[in-house]
Amino acid sequence: MSTLLCATDTRRNHPFTLDEAPDPRAVTREKLIRTFLDVVIPETSALLAVIAEMAGDDDVLRARIRRELGTRLKVEPAWLARLRETSTYQAVRMSHVLGDGDNIMLGVRLPGGHELTCLVYIDHNLGTLVKDAFFVPAPVADMVAEFRRVTEDPDTRWEDISLADARAWIETAIELAAITFPPLETET
């Protein structure tokens, strides 16, 4: 899902072509969502449930999608319909004395109690931007313990940080990564 939304993010366009007329064949976020709204099948319902929760501050889009989902059959798997109940409960920063980058680990609890860890690598050498991010199907405490086990460097630091600080760091680094050209690409 994140790949689809990333492909439609206009911030990733070449900075020297911003004055040119957009390609009418290009898929925009709006066209993509409209297609998902128009095609009533379980797969598009699942995608729309995720998009509604990834809509950020776009309350109009979120309401539009939720209104449409209310007219459809039940979204499957059931936990997708309850994504808004997802909570982030802990943030841990792993840093090194040289300051090249930080791993921000977010403990995430899904409806039903399943836990994930979202790992976000913020690269300071590239201008303090998100270079990589992915989810691991394990609680954050397990991930921190594993990282501590495999990282024997005494110059590595671990600290709990507030969720507000983690959000501020990550959002700022995402914004910078979104306008970096050429866009960064990773395997994850």
What class would the helix/strand composition place it in?
A: alpha+beta
Q: Please compute the radius of gyration using only Cα atoms.
A: 19 Å
Count of the domains: 2
- Tell me the helix content: 25-40%
**Total strand segments:** 5
Instruction: Give the N-terminus to C-terminus distance in angstroms.
Output: 13 Å
Concise summary:
The protein has helices spanning 2-7, 29-38, 42-53, 59-70, 78-81, 140-150, 163-178, and strands at 87-96, 101-109, 115-123, 129-136, 156-161. The chain is of the alpha+beta class.
Question: What does this entry look like structurally?
Answer:
This protein is of the alpha+beta class and 188 residues long. It folds into 2 domains: 3-83, no CATH class; 86-179. Helices cover 38% and strands 22% of the residues. A 5-stranded antiparallel sheet has the order 4-3-2-1-5. α3 packs antiparallel against α4 (59-70). The radius of gyration is 19 Å and the shape is flat. The two termini are 13 Å apart. The mean pLDDT is 87.
Features:
188 residues; five-stranded antiparallel sheet; flat
How do the helices and strands line up, and which of them pair or pack?
Blueprint: H1 2-7, H2 29-38, H3 42-53, H4 59-70, H5 78-81, E1 87-96, E2 101-109, E3 115-123, E4 129-136, H6 140-150, E5 156-161, H7 163-178
Antiparallel strand pairs: 1-2, 1-5, 2-3, 3-4
Helix pairs in contact: 3-4
